[in-house]
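Figure 2 data, in text form.
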Amino acid sequence: MIRVTGLGAICSVGHNHHDVFHQLKERRGQRDSAFRTSSHLLRQGSQGDLPQVAEVSLTDQELATALGLSPKLRRRTSRAALLALHAIDEAVKDAKLQASDYAPTRIGIYGASSLAGTTDLEILFREYTTQGKCRRPRLVLSGSYSALNDLLAQYYGWQGTRVLISTACSSSTVALQLAKADFDSDKIDVAVVYGVDPIGELSVAGFRALGGLSKTLTSPFSVGDFGLSLGEGAAALVLETKSRDNRTYAYLGGVGITSEAYHPTAPEPSGRGARGAISRALKTAGVQSDFIEGAYAHGTGTELNDVAETKAIALSLGPSSSQIALVSTKGATGHTLGAAGAINAVLACLSLHHGEIPPSPGFVSARKGCTLPVVRDEVHRREYRGILANSFGFGGSNASAVFLKQASGKNAQAVQKSEIWITGVGGLTPFGPEACRLEAAILAGTSAIRKGEVNPSFSGRCQTAYRAVVDLNDSETQTWLRKSRNHRKLDRLSSLASVATATAMRSAGLKLGIGNRDRVGIYFGTDTGPIEVIHQFFRNVVSGGIGAGNPSLFPNTVLNACLGYISIDQMIQGPAAMISQGEVSSGVAIGVALTALQTDAELDAVICGGVDEHSLILEKAYLDLGHIPSDLCSEKKSEGYWLGEGSIALVLEKKSFASARGIKPLAKLVGSLSSGHSIPGAHYYAQEASAITQLLDQATRDFGMPDLVVLNTTGLAKIDSLLVKGKATSQVNSTPSYSAMALFGNPRGSSTALGVFAAITAIKNQILPPSPGVVPGVPTSTAIQRVFVLTASCGGYSTLQIVEKGDTQ
């Protein structure tokens, strides 16, 4: 069983987990001093009537000082990273976790956030919008989602799995599920799971635009004003399976995640989707519904969410639901978005450990449709056997976790790993929506990179840049887009991912019905997400104040919005997650999908891949950083990359499921490895090539010598030299290499998925693709049985996919 050995938390009511739990109990359901006008928004120069929020009282400098961060490190650390580091540092010390306790490669980081470093991007957006330039273009790096995990890995020297989940408000409970799957597959010995979100103009303006903010203060499940109140904070848990000389707060029994396939923002009214997540959590925990005696609800205070959650809990737990102690803490902590699930998880563990559940702040009496017994006024005390922790988010993302007082042992079953086939590929790239076009470009070495103008409203020395972009107005692309039920709502990122998924499912001949919708999942990776629509939304806020947000744009600003649209169009109701881990995002997503299929008996197939869009403001920031050259690298020796965009989707299936459908594999995905290689205390780009050598040698030992190595180069010498040096000093040093950079530019989050597509192309055609460049090349015929796909990120993390020829090819 998975032990919870360390806890950390920081939010408006306390700066450590002891104070948070104590204050919630002592308040006796009151919420008086928790909310105030945000000092962060005032410093940002936010205009308009600012709402009351539950903000952490410490400034960024006070947080950095408490952590002992150097001025250099502080300058590249967002508020989200400071909050996360504060909670994690507490949890690590609470768990008595020392560097000598475990190998650094066996310690995984599972982060979660809805906004991450977006508050840094808000500064960058504001300066570019109002001044045409930015004094600190490096904010584009600290503002990235992957910067959170990369900073933590470098700070502690951890080299294991690195995953950043962004599924809006369900993020940190989804992160718990991914950590549990890695424990089940013996990838890790320790997991550090955390959730974090700061107060930002984006979230405040967005929820105000939707009419989702309470006019007074939020009162979940209670009579009073409908609506939520925003908060900020972070919470962290250290999970272990081995026995050490430290305490066990509780056991992680099971986690369930589902997609509703109903609406981009609203919950399914009957509670069906949330019920599915709770039921999966109970099943994986190996306990009956009456084992659950307490529940930390998502409980946002909005009418639709509270009623739907009530129904979901009642349906899942049955008659025993009338006896549980139900609580929502958001009347004091506010809605902390991506941190909400982690805060609930920490509190659930404390309740199991101490036998106490605090009352719900702001609860007076039950509102219509909320019939479950909510804890009010006084602390509820008993020896709880099991506690449920819920979190639900935009895009129809539902996640529930079950924590237990005692180790159950009922779910301790040996994992029977299945052979995984790649049965379908699809994409939307600069070559169009058909996979055959992409294959032809790889075989011919045809480049999609073209010279374009940088937005003239931005000042700077270089007004042109090379890029590879998708024509969304292409007639074939428009035909695919019009098939979407929400095609008029799709932003650019969602359009790319939707077409890629639809074409991949057609390629695999995969059709979903009532009997198998919940047995198919979707895992995608993205580096910068819907950054263009975020910028578009923020421009209105800069010019018109906090109340000028566009309600039609805000739902598309969450990273997993595209997954919500995909689940609706394809009726996918199984697990879903959007992963953001820099250039290796789709590599991490593919690895997560592989692990899910190998550890989850309830899952038959997964659609996985990556997506990133071209953004003019991102392009300008990278130009100012010197990351984008003003010429083609094949013509002149200039360092940097050209931004690419597009989406690649793969359909992975268990061999048994695909065979029963009469489907032959395009290839087999036999393994997915990863390694951290940043140097603690060094520069952001300072990384060790030896770690990549070790990764390649491990793959060779475990799977055999490859016939081709796909290197997903970026154009940045600091990163590409790692790949080249790492390969040159490995056992595969004489194996032919391939890179598609000169064809597509740097597609960032979808790089690995593109590399896997190139591997499938090589296996299918039994060729070595030509060395790509501006001038088309000629492929070389040869036997291709096995391909390694290697990708490295700027933050010091690499993934390696092992793709093999299918048995029936």
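Caption note: The radius of gyration is 25 Å.
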